[in-house]
Specification:
Heat Shock Protein 90; about 450 residues; 13 strands; rod-shaped; 3 domains; alpha+beta; five-stranded mixed β-sheet; 9 helices; about 50% helix; Helix Hairpins
Length: about 450
C-alpha cells in the first residue's frame, strides 16, 4: 500500500489530528515560555542600563571620568559598554572607542555596533560588537553613553528558538511514525476482513468475519456483519431450497408428460403431429431449465471439490476447440488461437470444460458469418488468464454484470435460443474453484475473461 493512501485510514487521520493539536499546544506553551523568558531578560538588561545611567548622570566632569573608568574596571565579563565624550565627540573616559553612528536620538534605547578601545585582531582591525545603547547629554555639552553587549543574549535566544524547532520536528516525526504504525495495524485487519468479504461475495456464505478479544470498533462491525450473514445465509438457503424443491418435484411429472406426448405421436392423426411436436419442444425447454437449476444448486453447494485434479489448460483448450470445430464451420466462424504458456490448475476437469465450452458456445452463437473468435491463454500478474473475444454485437457496459445472473438475457440475445442460465452455470463453476469470470471492455464484440487463481507453469 502506498504511503499516500494511509491518509484514508481513520487511525492515521485521528493520530494526525490529535498530533497536530498536541504539536500546536506544545508550540504555544514553548512560545509562551520563550516570550516570557526573552522578554524578562530583555527588560532586565534595559533596566540595568537605565540604572547605570541614573548612577552616572549628574556627576561633574572629574567624578564622571572616575566613575566610568571604575565601571569598566569592575566589569570582568566585559559585557558593559561605557563611553564619555566631549562636545566635539573626542574621547574622555570608558571602553567605547567612539560614538556609535546609531546614536542620533538620545534618551532612547537603540541597538547597534561598536568598537572597544585598544581591541585589535591579528590584522590590526578593530572587531565590531553588537550592543544596546542609551545616551544622555552632560551639562557641558558632552555625551554619556551606557550600553550592554547583546551577543550572549542573542545566543541564548537562538538556543531557545532552536530548541523549539527541534521539539516541533520531533513531535511531528513521532506523530507520523505512530500514525503509520497504528495505520498498518488497522489496515492489516481491514485487509484480512476484506479478503473474507471477497470470499463471501464469491458465494462462500459459510465464511464469517473474525472477531478479536479487543472488542474495538472493527470487532463491533464484524459482529454485526456476522449476524447479518447468518440471517442472509438462512434466507438464501430457504429460497434456494424452495426453488430446488420446485424444480425437483416438477421434473418427474414433466418427464411423464413428455413421455405421454411422445406416445400420442403414434396414436393420433397426422393433422395433430405439428401441435404435438411443438408441445414436446416446449416440454423439453421446461425440463432443460429444471436441469439447469438443479445443476446450479449442485455447484453452489460446493459438493464437487473432491474431484479436483491437476488440469492442463493447454490440453483442455485443444479438446474444446476440436469439439466446437463442426459448429464453427457450420456458422462460418474461424478460430484464432494463441497459447503462450502450458499452465496447470487444480480443478474439476469436467466442470472447467463445461464452463469454457459455454463461453465459447456463446462466442460462436453471437458471431456473424465470416468472423473470427480469438482464444488467448497467457500469464498476467503471475496467474494464467484465458481470453475469448468474438466479433459480435458485444455487451453494453450496464449489462456486463447483469448477464451473469439467472434468467437475464441481454438486449442482443432476444432473437436467439436460450434460457438465460448458461452464464449462471459458468459463474457457479468459477466460484466453486475460486476463479474470476467477467466481461471486459473492448472496442468490438464481447471479451470474456477467466482469471485462474493459481497455477503450475511448465515450459
Amino acid at each position: 500500500m502506498k504511503i499516500a493512501n494511509y491518509w484514508h485510514t481513520t487511525a492515521f487521520r485521528l493520530v494526525v489530528i490529535y498530533g497536530s493539536m498536541f504539536l500546536a499546544t506544545v508550540m504555544l506553551l514553548m512560545g509562551l515560555v520563550y516570550w516570557r523568558t526573552v522578554g524578562y531578560l530583555s527588560r532586565q538588561m534595559e533596566y540595568s542600563i537605565e540604572m547605570r545611567m541614573h548612577q552616572l548622570y549628574g556627576l561633574d566632569d572629574a567624578e564622571l571620568r572616575n566613575a566610568v573608568n571604575g565601571m569598566v574596571f569592575r566589569d570582568v565579563l566585559h559585557q558593559g559598554v561605557y563611553g564619555y565624550f566631549g562636545p566635539r565627540g573626542h574621547w574622555r573616559a570608558g571602553n567605547l572607542d567612539a560614538l556609535p553612528p546609531v546614536l542620533r536620538n538620545y534618551k532612547h534605547l537603540v541597538e547597534g555596533y561598536y568598537a572597544l578601545r585598544h581591541d585589535y585582531d591579528e590584522k590590526g582591525i578593530q572587531p565590531l560588537h553588537e550592543a544596546i545603547f542609551l545616551a544622555e547629554h552632560t551639562s557641558d555639552g558632552g555625551v554619556l553613553v551606557v550600553g550592554r553587549n547583546v551577543t550572549a543574549f542573542k545566543h541564548f535566544r537562538w538556543i531557545i528558538e532552536e530548541a523549539l524547532l527541534e521539539a516541533g520536528t520531533l513531535v511531528v516525526v513521532l506523530g507520523l511514525g505512530v500514525s503509520l504504525i497504528l495505520s498498518l495495524s488497522s489496515i492489516r485487519r481491514v485487509r484480512f476482513l476484506t479478503q473474507r468479504c471477497h470470499r463471501i461475495a464469491q458465494g462462500v456464505f459459510s465464511e464469517r468475519l473474525e472477531v478479536s478479544e479487543r472488542q474495538d470498533e472493527l470487532d463491533m462491525l464484524a459482529s454485526t456483519v456476522n449476524v447479518m450473514l447468518d440471517r442472509v445465509e438462512q434466507l438464501m438457503e430457504e429460497v434456494r431450497n424452495v426453488c430446488n424443491n420446485i424444480a425437483h418435484d416438477l421434473r418427474t411429472p414433466m418427464t411423464r408428460l413428455r413421455a405421454r406426448l411422445h406416445r400420442l405421436q403414434f396414436t393420433l392423426d397426422e393433422r395433430y403431429s405439428d401441435d404435438l411436436h411443438g408441445l414436446l419442444e416446449d416440454t423439453d425447454e421446461v425440463l432443460g431449465r429444471f436441469r439447469a437449476l438443479l445443476r446450479i444448486a449442485e455447484l453452489e453447494s460446493h459438493k464437487r471439490r473432491s474431484a479436483f485434479t491437476e488440469v492442463s489448460l493447454k490440453e483442455l483448450l485443444g479438446r474444446l476447440l476440436e469439439f466446437y470445430g463442426p459448429l464453427s464451420e457450420e456458422k462460418s466462424v474461424s478460430f484464432s488461437v494463441r497459447i503462450d504458456c502450458d499452465c496447470h490448475v487444480q480443478a474439476d476437469e469436467e466442470l472447467i470444460f463445461e464452463a469454457t465450452a459455454n463461453i465459447l458456445d456463446n462466442a460462436i452463437k453471437f458471431s456473424p458469418p465470416q468472423s473470427l473468435v480469438h482464444v488467448h491463454l497467457h500469464i498476467e500478474a503471475g496467474k494464467p488468464v484465458l481470453d475469448i473475444l468474438d466479433q459480435g454485437p458485444g455487451i453494453p457496459q450496464h449489462e456486463r454484470q447483469a448477464v451473469l445472473k439467472r434468467y437475464y438475457r441481454g438486449t442482443g440475445s432476444a432473437n436467439l435460443e436460450g434460457q438465460g442460465l448458461g452464464l449462471s452455470i459458468v459463474m457457479a463453476i468459477m466460484n466453486l474453484h475460486g476463479f474470476e469470470f467477467s466481461f471486459e471492455p473492448t472496442a468490438m464484440g464481447a471479451l470474456a475473461r477467466v482469471r485462474f487463481s493459481h497455477s503450475m507453469q511448465y515450459e
